[in-house]
Amino acid sequence: MPFEVINLRKSYGGVEVLKGIDLKIADGEIHALLGANGAGKSTLIKCIAGAVQPDDGQIHVGRERFRSLTPREARQAGITVIYQDLSLAASLTVADNVFLGQELRVGPFVRRRAQEAETAVWLDKLGIDLDPSTVLTGIGHAELQAIEIIKSLRTRPRLLILDEPTAALSEREAARLRQHLLALKGQDLPILYVTHRMNEVFELADRFTVLRGGQVALAGEVRAHDREEIIGAIVGRQMQAATPPEAQAGVQAAPLLEARGLLAGGIGPVDLQVRPGEILGVFGLVGSGRTELLEALFTARPSYAGELRIEGRPVRLKGPAQAVAAGVALVPADRPRNSVFASLSAQENWSLPNLSVLGRFGLRRPGAERAGFDRMAEQLDLRPRRADLEAGRFSGGNQQKLVLGRWLDRAGCRVLLLDEPTQGVDVGVRRDLYDGLERFVAGGERAAIVTSSEPDELIQLAHRVIVLAHGKVAGELRGAQITESNLLELAHHSPEPALAS
Q1: Does the reported pTM lie above 0.85?
Q2: Residue 65 confidence (pLDDT)
């Protein structure tokens, strides 16, 4: 049965965060819900799921009409939400997880064969090649997401909400999950699909709704709109199609950072060079060695052989502190664990690696710190621009701006290493991060190396891309050669060591 939201409104402390939202999803339709962080997506989902009570409006589930819902009423109405954090037990089998809490029994005995037979039918429907008796340990993330979906489908939902199911998946895993989801089309189940990935919108969705500032900025059939139009609605400005950037003047100069025969845990031997004014992309599938390569360049991962050169001179760096002193900085992928100090203020987070530069005679200079923070906040459009606010209270995208902003103005930082810098952030924040990175290299004196699992990102950002496969360089692409098909073809290759120069 179709699902509909009519004129839904919600305010917090006098601030209206949902301003009359209309949304309709037909049976068998996958409807993409898009919007930047803070656009109102989470509040809308919470209202639908009963976690938050709307101030006005209606929620229609089939022929039932609701002014508001409690979580229990939402479940009884057939509304199911699958969040990024899965509720699966790794030590149990696929079938045991699907029936967890709803076991088929004869008296006190569980009918395991019946459970496995029904699970096999669901696995076949979604095109998943798994034995129902397989224990979850070792099963891929895409299949775990699909098992969570099967678990929900058994309850015969009337609306299935998927909240960024591929956010933590690699591109290869995400592609597998999308294939499983395509099998659900036409099964009379309305699906609301929340995502930041534009390729998923065009591959999966029939219709879409873009929220911006708590309002519907754009809605319609996917086939009637192009990528740039949808992204423009999300960020509030017109976007241009992704094309490889023009080379900076310094890109023909001698290498700023060079690795020769670098061999470390999980990679090597690897040769690469990055020149002043250049953004070098690193692409590869899960397990290809992208993160390991950056850690080895930063000397956070011990190397067993090979040589690092900075501005043509061999260097022996004995850890990250010496790498930073030599002008090399790393922005790691795991922000909460490795980059952001949630209990410290935004300014303190930004200042941490800059105290030696901003201070004098071992003393901090609050005025200089605040001026530097304000400059960074303006350049990267940090929201909110509150130096005193705890970093943990910023959105993921704005936390990433804090981390990147630490290094953009640091005088001694010559080479910036970024591991999946836009993972899990919306397209508006991505554009701000891209702009900051492009400014970093624009003077022709600094360089960056960026890993990404998204081809479109490297097409738009990188002057050159090296592709890793099994810890080695499978090949190098430049300019117009940087296409999705070329990147994926090389990523599936088993390479001999190759020179990236």
Answers
A1: no
A2: 95
